[in-house]
Write a structure and sequence with these properties.
The protein contains 22 helices and 5 strands. Helix 8 runs antiparallel to helix 13, helix 9 crosses helix 10 and helix 9 crosses helix 11.
Length: about 475
């Protein structure tokens, strides 16, 4: 029996499914041939081909498979096909690393803090000129308008900042943490330019939100969408019908992927494919049902916790669709679908059903023209968009223009909203669709409504990016490990 990388493990050294783990969400080809021996330690990987215990994580393990000399012992049972696959993947990673390095070099190449022609000639002393130069490294980064967070360390502009500081030389004293958090942040943005603050659902944050909104009534507080959806998934997974399927599926997957001969046998009968397609058994029908329930939420989680789409316009509409699909999955049997639907509704309440979420749902042209009849009969949706307009535009005359003229033009597809290109581009919610960009192109005849649409639809809705800096969330929800495939 043979298939890609199919080599038998010695019976005495075989690891049982109780102590072998595979990161199911990772697409790294190394996991086809290796497993974690301790799921709490990503550095310990055991080779399924030769049983070699590799330290240094999945990257060093791929060197073992590829037979790269000088780094780690070569796997004696990895055939030419396995080596070719892994070497090809490593070359892709190397090319990406080289591209990043080249881009970083280009970023700092044009940094010159002495090239600013705005330096006043009347500065008489070297001390005065040095004080002026001291401000330039900060301004170089600040002018990009990036938010201040620990993720700035991975930002390309941080490299430019470092280069500017290097060119300045010794003696540069950066702002203190307090100056970054309060006076500099306030000076750069200002309360009038802040529309939303996002935090997770911790009890302390929920209490702080009440105090914050009382002090700053013009600014919205919203809950982290990624955290809220994660809690919904957790709640649904505890329902007996779903938890039983998850338990059985884990046992089947662990057994197959922990026994190399069984894995090779399966791949031999499935043309080297993994377990992704349900078969005609009651077990797989249950798995298919669970997938139908989880998929809409997982897709939405990837949007709100990703960088491909501006997420705010998809939260409320995506959750409404998830509820509809859950009902359909259970064939609209209320006794059966109610627990799952309740988990979604309860997770939305007070967190993802606020005025900003509903206003973004209204302003997203994909949902608006698809669900308009449903929207116009829901007073909470109309109240949300009206309240956002009032809060964003304090001027009564502008409010009247938006609500009586521009909203009507949007609702009835008048002018540019009714052009064939505008209609075609709003009908497909694919990866390329960007509702804020749609407004920037087709909303010029409704300038006030366009401005607030671009502002709201461009908002983030998750705080998970910041949480990755100081918690174990980095391991479970990093961009590399947490990108779920559906």
């Amino acid at each position: 029996m043979s298939s890609s990388g199919s080599h038998a493990m010695s019976t005495s050294d075989s690891i049982t499914s109780t102590n072998l783990y595979r990161p199911l969400n990772s697409m790294d080809p190394g996991w086809k041939y290796g497993r974690l021996t301790d799921k709490s330690d990503p550095n310990l990987v055991k080779c399924l081909l030769c049983d070699f215990p590799c330290t240094g994580g999945i990257t060093r393990f791929k060197w073992h498979l590829a037979g790269i000399k000088g780094n780690i012992r070569k796997c004696p049972k990895a055939n030419a096909e396995v080596q070719k696959e892994i070497i090809g993947y490593l070359e892709i990673l190397k090319k990406k690393a080289e591209d990043r390095k080249k881009k970083a070099e280009e970023l700092v190449a044009d940094v010159n803090i002495n090239s600013d022609d705005s330096e006043p000639e009347e500065l008489e002393t070297e001390r005065d000129k040095k004080r002026l130069r001291l401000k330039k490294p900060v301004n170089l980064v600040k002018e990009k308008g990036r938010g201040i967070s620990f993720n700035s360390l991975a930002d390309p502009d941080f490299l430019r900042f470092c280069e500017a500081v290097g060119q300045y030389g010794s003696g540069y004293k950066p702002p203190t943490p307090y100056e970054y958090r309060v006076p500099l942040l306030k000076r750069k943005f200002g309360e009038e330019n802040v529309l939303q603050v996002v935090t997770d659902n911790a009890a302390a944050n929920m209490k702080a939100a009440e105090l914050f909104m009382a002090k700053y009534p013009r600014i919205y507080w919203t809950s982290c969408a990624a955290h809220s959806i994660d809690l919904m998934l957790e709640s649904i997974s505890k329902q007996k019908e779903i938890s039983d399927v998850i338990r059985d599926t884990k046992e089947v997957a662990n057994f197959i992927y922990s026994h190399h001969q069984v894995l090779s046998l399966m791949r031999g009968h499935t043309e080297n494919r993994d377990i992704v397609r349900p078969g005609a058994t009651s077990f797989w029908k249950s798995v298919a049902l669970a997938i139908k329930i989880f998929k809409p939420l997982v897709v939405l989680l990837r949007i709100v916790d990703g960088e491909e789409k501006q997420p705010m316009g998809f939260v409320f509409g995506g959750l409404k669709d998830a509820i509809k699909k859950a009902k359909a999955a259970f064939r609209y049997n209320e006794d059966v679908f109610q627990p799952c639907v309740k988990a979604i509704v309860d997770g939305m309440k007070g967190r993802l059903d606020g005025e900003l979420h509903k206003a973004a749902y209204y302003l997203n042209p994909y949902y608006f023209y698809r669900d308009f009849e449903e929207m116009r009969t829901d007073p909470s949706i109309m109240d949300a968009i009206s309240n956002c307009i009032v809060r964003y535009y304090p001027n009564a005359k502008i409010q009247d223009t938006v609500m009586t003229v521009e909203m009507r033009s949007f609702q009835e597809s008048m002018g540019q909203f009714g052009k064939d290109t505008a209609k075609r581009q709003r009908e497909n919610n694919d990866e390329a669709f960007n509702p804020a960009h749609w407004w920037s192109i087709h909303g010029s005849e409704a300038p006030y409504l366009r401005n607030i649409a671009i502002k709201i639809l461009g908002l983030t809705c998750s705080a998970s990016g910041c949480e990755r800096n100081w918690s174990t969330f980095e391991w479970t929800h990093s961009k590399k490990r947490g990108k779920l495939e559906v």
